[in-house]
Amino acid sequence: MKKIRIFIAAIIIGVISIFYSTSAKDIRIDNSKKIIEDINYITENKLDSSVKRVSEYKDVIYDIELEEFESNDLVIDYDTNGNLIMIVDKNKKDEIIKKNEESAIKAKGELNNLSNDKNIKLKEKAVEISKLFNNVKDEKKLNESTTFIEESKIMDGTIAFKWARTENGYKYNDDFIMVIMDPLDGTLVIANKMYKSNSPTNNVKINEDKAIEIASLELKDKNKIDTSKIIKTELKIINPNYYWTNLILNSTDSKLAYEVTFSKQSPYEGEASIWIDAEDGTNLGGQQTK
């Protein structure tokens, strides 16, 4: 009798699991159709909104499991919690990959000649698309928002708009939402959300002046960095990489840190940034840019 009860319980659990899986998938299919309709409205496009294929795969770069919903025109990815991760226009992506030199030069010329009104309209569309990723389900994360940080003209003739993940007013260094548009017709190419970091595990206990003092000592005489020329200082949330130490390690255990950026001359002109732990002044790493 006991074996029969266990057998029946196993069947019930299996049926519930299948029902839940199917139900969750149906919900995401409906969500995907709604997303495509929203994108059509925002970009004044006519993309196919019927989902033709559903599959699962692992993103080896970011080490996350994703569920992919595909129409004739778009690919839409969700993580295992049902959070929207990426939207790709398949035709636009292939078009950009296949662009020859002449069309790339034409697209780049179009970017350089964007009128102010056209540029504003592109950004307005990108803002509306970025909002599709901001469906916060976890009450613990209701203090999160995004802050616009960048507009860049990409070499392949697209224009990218980027928002940093923000928590309690502090920007994350590595977490963002990016929307890439085609300036020729104002349509979406790719949009994605990368939130890989945990909430910071420390508090702010040292001030900016102390952080600059520590940063200057840490980078003194390194790669001809001029520690007397501070370009900027910002208190932000970073993932330690210990770049300026003998230990090279990337971590998702985030810290509040002062990012102090200096001018440098060697091995090339550019900027050198160092992250100083906002609680105890530890050197948490940083980066160099040209």
Oligomerization state: single chain
User: Which strand-content bin applies to the residues?
Assistant: 35-45%
Biggest sheet character: 8 strands, antiparallel
Shape: globular
What value does the average pLDDT take? 83
Helical element count? Answer: 5
What is the domain total for the residues? 2
First-to-last CA distance: 73 Å
What is the structural class? alpha+beta
Poorly predicted regions:
7-20
Radius of gyration: 23 Å
Helix proportion range: 25-40%
What is the topology, as strand order, of the major beta sheet? 1-2-3-4-8-7-6-5
Number of strands: 12
- SSE arrangement, N to C: HEEEEHHHEEEEHEEEE
Ordered list of secondary-structure elements with their pairings:
Layout: H1 2-43, E1 53-59, E2 64-70, E3 74-79, E4 84-89, H2 90-98, H3 101-112, H4 116-130, E5 144-153, E6 159-167, E7 170-182, E8 187-194, H5 208-219, E9 225-238, E10 255-264, E11 270-277, E12 283-289
